[in-house]
Amino acid sequence: xxxxxxxxxxxxxxxxxxxxxxxxxxxxxxxxxxxxxxxxxxxxxxxxxxxxxxxxxxxxxxxxxxxxxxxxxxxxxxxxxxxxxxxxxxxxxxxxxxxxxxxxxxxxxxxxxxxxxxxxxxxxxxxxxxxxxxxxxxxxxxxxxxxxxxxxxxxxxxxxxxxxxxxxxxxxxxxxxxxxxxxxxxxxxxxxxxxxxxxxxxxxxxxxxxxxxxxxxxxxxxxxxxxxxxxxxxxxxxxxxxxxxxxxxxxxxxxxxxxxxxxxxxxxxxxxxxxxxxxxxxxxxxxxxxxxxxxxxxxxxxxxxxxxxxxxxxxxxxxxxxxxxxxxxxxxxxxxxxxxxxxxxxxxxxxxxxxxxxxxxxxxxxxxxxxxxxxxxxxxxxxxxxxxxxxxxxxxxxxxxxxxxxxxxxxxxxxxxxxxxxxxxxxxxxxxxxxxxxxxxxxxxxxxxxxxxxxxxxxxxxxxxxxxxxxxxxxxxxxxxxxxxxxxxxxxxxxxxxxxxxxxxxxxxxxxxxxxxxxxxxxxxxxxxxxxxxxxxxxxxxxxxxxxxxxxxxxxxxxxxxxxxxxxxxxxxxxxxxxxxxxxxxxxxxxxxxxxxxxxxxxxxxxxxxxxxxxxxxxxxxxxxxxxxxxxxxxxxxxxxxxxxxxxxxxxxxxxxxxxxxxxxxxxxxxxxxxxxxxxxxxxxxxxxxxxxxxxxxxxxxxxxxxxxxxxxxxxxxxxxxxxxxxxxxxxxxxxxxxxxxxxxxxxxxxxxxxxxxxxxxxxxxxxxxxxxxxxxxxxxxxxxxxxxxxxxxxxxxxxxxxxxxxxx
Length: 809
Description:
The protein is of the alpha/beta class. The chain is 34% helix and 23% strand. Mean pLDDT is 88; it is low at 173-177.
């Protein structure tokens, strides 16, 4: 037998499977999806098995050295999926495979062997097998390689021992987090023998007597930490009883629980509205019999989309199938976890980047072993290794965070479609402000379309007041708060109602400038101004992380007239305290939510009424539901409109609509104050009227005229190097080869300098392909990129290829 292995050399030259012979001793453990150790040149490397074959066309094949997992970390479907991602997003096959496993499985490790209770008691009639078990019994835990060295013919015994639960194998992942174990104590003898032993103990062995008394009254297993805490005894008392053969001590596997100590209130079912019931009935059509059933759920904010998700998920689980729910922001995860754990309890696993590596690994293992039915998390949870997926939900499907900005640059929506097709699953894209691409697909009838146009209980959408800040300036108001916003804040504070304030910037000021000479403090490594952070009086680059102290005088001319311009969240917080004495502000941005659990603590404090204002960046703009929020203030509604990005108007409409939807979601009516210097822009106008349809009509016309998605697809190439002349020369040469290779109908723009021309001391040029959905374009690009590899290595040019880019900067 031969295995086709993709090895851990993620470069284009070796981006293909290599054939390796499977030694007979490893044959039971080598499966598609297994990680293996293989010789590659003079080195030993890790690789993934992507196929098995009886024969090989290669004349001389080398042997697989070892199998790194008892159970393959990847399913056959995930291996197939990695191939699709590699083709679609121009990354190496190994990189795609690696992105699907937890971080703790991405380093070298060993395996160790233990005997279970059955193994301890097992007696073989075969002398060699009995010697094998005696050897483990005397030395456990023992490394897998060591036992194979001592017993070269042990494969059959190991395989049989695993199947019959006599042997337990654990993997050690280098020096990184692995499995958590719990020490369990249980009585080794009968109650009568325990009582007799207690009577024979000396008068000074008080603690040992207390331990024996516990096991006499409760003749069952208990974890050692729990026993020590319960009785207040030491480890020594337990050790003495184990040494005397009265207690058995064994290590069993446990899970790190990110929600230990938390109780989740059961979520009752609410009667469905007519609209919710119609959507549920429509989606249920794709479940019986199961078919690939992609659909867009366009529901206004507060229309009850989550209740629809819960019901469809319950029906999916009832069919014996599994479900994935993706949310765009970590800040939404705690709220979703409460709702879904309240309904489905321990059947829910949670996966996101703010869990520790050990917690994420354990949640992943629950999924891989089929111990849970639901996975909730941000983008990477789309790779949850379920084997019978029936439902995938992308909540707030329009969000740019579903696109990964590092290799592999996949979009979770596309991966969801691949997995949905493979499993014949329902794929729900849900949003109050769908992406242009998804809404266009629904309009063309390529995916099913469902709509919920009213809030639950027929509650009105919040009234939106658009304030022209130019008029405020003319009236002499030079503050960041318009008069209507000041009046509304005072009104809410009097009524003891809560406020959400949104600003899509963090820090104190956007930039620092000298009023004498006009000098703006720039990052020395990037072509971007530094942002001032008042809390620690530093200037910081939000691209490379460069930090310097707050300047007292202008570095250019020495003037003391150096001032802070623009508005950041820290500055808004300070100004709120100045204009509204005693106001309690809870600020949420990247600076205040860096620690584990910070999102949940801040949101819980606001929910409990410990803050009057929740002030934040886009992490508070969607999904959050607070019953006492009646006012939303948007301070710079047009801040995104000035970016050089064709999606600027779409993102502005989405953000304004989403953040406005936080107001008046329950019994109290809501109001939105929208401050802007661009009241005439169609995205602002339509957002103020909650009119997605009119915005779509106007925006789709612009996309059609300028050949942008959804009518055309894009591929963005970014070149980076410290040497500008070399960068220009190489990027132009690459663009010339691309133009020659592209089929008719596809065309190339550039190369030109990137909007941010330098990041981390590297200058940047970019070019972009626009094409209709021609299947020949991506293979042509692959060919040119492969041919460019030697020149890229020789010159040190960095090239990134972004298929279907979301960020053009």
